[in-house]
Amino acid sequence: MASDKLLILLSAIALASGDVSHILEDPSTEPPPPLPYSFSYTAGRFPGHADRQHSEVSDGSGVVKGSFSYVDPRQKVRTVDYVADREGFHPVLSDVPPEHPTDSESVAQAKDRHFQLYARIAEEHAHPENVVQSVPRQTEAVAAAAAKHAQLFRVIAEQHARIAAEREALQREEEERQHLQELQEIGH
């Protein structure tokens, strides 16, 4: 038992007197040497068919230059050359897509009519105080239908009120009958 305590004490002294000077020193790590690389590949959707390729080269200092190509939906090969450096990613499309088609005469006229109508409506809405408020008017047929509806609504409302009163009277009668029955049972 005393030997166990002595062993623990010696172990603690040995650990406490260990050399930790390397922990206290100012650590300075040398930057790793440049690791340049280069790769390229060609791929396709099925064997023997190449529809995209990519190649890239890095000098190891953080500058990457590359190029990739693909077949667009119009079956045209598109190529993008790029440089990636500390300033960002800088792509250059080598084949600029075609301009939008020009409008036909009828399309140009339709657009012009649309813009004129839009401008007129925008001007009207810019000055709402000048807009004449139109209130819908009822025709004779609509007025007659509305009057018929109102009459039917009154008849139905009267029927509902009558039915509710009858139910209430029946419920009161049932409650009185039950009360009398309870009194008779108590009296026996």
Explain this structure to me?
- This protein has 188 residues and is an alpha+beta fold.
- Helix content is 47%, strand content 20%.
- The protein has helices at 2-16, 21-24, 105-126, 140-187; strands at residues 37-43, 52-58, 64-71, 77-85, 88-93.
- The chain has a five-stranded antiparallel β-sheet, with no helix packed on it.
- Strand 3 (64-71) and strand 4 form a beta hairpin.
- The chain is flat.
- The termini are far apart.
Summarize the structure.
With 188 residues, this protein is an alpha+beta fold.
Number of helices: 4
The unreliable regions are none
Please tally the β strands and state the result.
Answer: 5
Task: Round the Cα radius of gyration to an integer and report it.
Answer: 47 Å
What would the principal axes of the Cα set say about the shape?
flat
List the helices and strands and how they pair.
Elements: H1 2-16, H2 21-24, E1 37-43, E2 52-58, E3 64-71, E4 77-85, E5 88-93, H3 105-126, H4 140-187
Antiparallel strand pairs: 1-2, 2-3, 3-4, 4-5
Features:
188 residues, alpha+beta, 47% helix, flat
